[in-house]
Amino acid sequence: MTVCSEQRRLLIIACTSTKSPDVRLLPAIDRYRGPSFRVLRRWLSDHPAAAARLDVYILSAEFGLIPAIQPIPDYDRRMTAARACELCDQVRATLGELLSLRSYAGVYFSAGKVYRQALGDLNTVAGLHSLTTAPDGAGIGAQLGALKRWLTAEAC
Question: Which end of the chain has fewer CB atoms surrounding its CB within 10 Å, N or C?
């Protein structure tokens, strides 16, 4: 069942190792080429009205939590537990700012276990309501299906 909502939603999606090698700065959403970004870009294209109510942020191993439109260069950095720990304060501060500016009807976090460490304890994030996370330990097909279902749940 599709439910339409005028409220905004927030998607936080982990970066991918597959990137466009373009030497120019590209918006982060265009830099990353992994399957989750293909699903996201297709959904954004197919559902422009719902896309206008979706805020997309990317959890990058290099840059932390950034808006999808932020221009970034090509880079090669993997998320490790140590890097997630280094990024945790910046990621939580950015998320806190987002949640203080706007109330989201739903928040989806599409990332694996190591990336989740960069958010720390989500139960302590003020204003974080209606959080859904990608299925922990699921294969890529299940993760992509869950992302698509969440995106489509409120598309009009």
Answer: N
Sign of the Cα pseudo-torsion (35, 38, 44, 45, in order): negative
Rounded Cα distance, 91 and 94, in Å = 5
Question: pTM of the predicted model, to two decimals?
Answer: 0.90
User: pLDDT tens across 30-69, in order?
Assistant: 999 999 999 999 999 999 999 999 999 999 999 999 999 9
Q: Which of 68, 110, 62 is nearest to 87 (CA)?
A: 62
Cα(23)–Cα(123) distance, integer angstroms: 40
